[in-house]
Amino acid sequence: MMQYMRDDIKNDPKVQFGCQLRRLRTSKGLSQEALALAAGLDRTYISGCERGTRNIGLENITKLAEALNICPSVFFLPSEEE
User: Which one of 15, 19, 42, 56 has the largest count of C-beta atoms within 10 Å of its C-beta?
Assistant: First the structure.
């Protein structure tokens, strides 16, 4: 039962997006606070997105992509770990 729940969480698109966001943010050497400031968002919002507890909208995805200097589609590409 516990494995099923872990797989369910792992397959959640919000969790997948959050993992990709965290990976991209840290690869650029940015803190959540620095990314939030650059994107015009709140740090707690960035944290919620990275944990997969926020259902992020297209406008905020675009803001984050601009702040990270990437194309928004990069958030949806498979990561190297997969």
Answer: 56
